Amino acid sequence: MENKIEKLKKNWESYILHNTLSEDTRILVKEAWDRCLALGVDYNDGYGYIITDEELNEILKTKAGLISIANPVMENISEIINQTSFSLVLTDENGVILHVIENENIHKKHNSLRFVRGTRWDEKSVGSNAIGTALSTKTNVHMLGAEHFCISHHPWTCSAALIRNSLGEIIGCIDISGSVENDHIHTFGIVTYAARIIEKQMDLTASYELIETALDSVIDGLFVIDKNFRTTNANKKILEIFNVNREEFDSIDIMEMFEDLDIKNKVFEMGESIRISDYTINFKNNKHECLLNISPTKILSNVTGAVFFVKEAQQVRKVVSHIAGYHASYEFDNILTENEEMCRIIRFAKKIATTNSTVLIQGESGTGKELFAHSIHNYSRRNSWPFVAVNCAALPKDLVESELFGYEKGSFTGASREGKPGKFELANGGTIFLDEIGDLPLDMQSKLLRVIESNKINRIGSRYERGIDVRIITATNKNLREEIDQKSFREDLFFRLNVINISLPPLRERKEDICLLANHFLTQLNEESKGVKKFSQSFIDYLNKNQWRGNVRELRHCIQREYYLSEDEYLRASGTNSIQQRKEINIDNADLKKVEKIYIEEALKDESGNVIKAAKRLNIGKSTVYRKIKEFNINIEAYR
Known about the structure:
By secondary structure, the protein is an alpha/beta fold.
């Protein structure tokens, strides 16, 4: 070894002092010396360049991840070489020393060379050395004695290996340095292996971080357990759902929380998934309604645990409600009027729309009660949440409770196996519109009153109540005070519904709106049919004289009917009055099918498109009415 060290010293003197290259000087070393000469490095120097505290702190902050991963690797190597005079050094990609684990025997020598944290050891600062030369050549380097450019480094031997990220970019360097007399061939192998371990650990950490990022980007709650029901991972959303931190969540007894589910047998033993579309998780006296999916995690076909997906039911129902059409279709701008009283009502409705108060809309059939309900919702802060409309008069009496409040699985014969949320749950966060509230059965009125007072609903067959946040808008064409007197409507419910009252005037009291609306309907029909039909003067006179007991709905149906019956470009009054039309038909000579169609259309018009009521009015079966509607190609939606 002594002969080799002396030989290297002679090679250095020959080239650096006399510009003569010895044949056994390594090319890597010769090129490093050339770079140092070109950079003007003083071979009598070689002491680490000290950077400022501000620079160091910024670098340490940036490289915190690298240091935390490299430190345990360096500690393990230190245990192996602790009986030698070697030290371990970690630098960044610019040669700044970030971390040092040194042997006490060479502590003073380190300090004398400023081979300490916060100094720069690139070739420009200290000449050729394993760290600086490795960074310059982008290769791992072993440098012995006088292969170093500066004389102060000749007593040293150094081995440096580069650390790269997953993109192949150099992010640091790890070095083993010690006394030249203790040089050993294995130090280069050790440091190279250490660099690879650090790189692998960084890749693994990056993968974990990617997984964490992916988990946290999932909009649903997610957590993973092992086969001992211990939590191994959880995303931010699940912590948000349960309103806990990670430490609190890890302490949850998962087995107890899901004690009603056979996770151990079905998931762990059989490797199957559990999917429940309507599940309630009880935690800290709070009930969390959700869609639950529990799937086994596997390694080499062996079940290692399970992953839980928890989707909040309210968010699901919001999406489902939108897909199912539970959204408001009209806005205040859709209400056409030139009537001063209607304009005042619209201004009032806009004002109360921004509150959460319960609203009762009263008015004759066809005055636009539903139009106002839609508009109030769309003008409110709830407009991004569901708007669920329910016609109380159309609900079968034996299904009213399940339709409004839902039911649990198996609560009655024919019930869905997974239960079903009611209209109030589907409207959660938004608005429920109870049309024809005067037709709600008395027993349901008491249950509705309890919902309004408690903001909770109880599904059929459920053991607990579910909190809801729903604005209630009701409408009726009945005089509820008269209904109260007749004991068919609860007075206490009336007072709870009548917090805000909107009373819509009939069309006959809004004469200025008749032609306005008629022209609007005519324009729509012309656009749909690509026609150019107009009103005759006789038809306009008829419109203004008619009392319109069916209000705007009757007016619209009248315009539609006469539009399609007119044989030229003008709509005339001759066929407008249904009684007159019936009188003009000679039953003996008329087409029977034409008579049938007229009577069915009139019944549908009088019953606002309700087939069941129209059938009763005609004294025929509803299936017959449906068959005739199809046969005569009647647009039933036009009457609703």
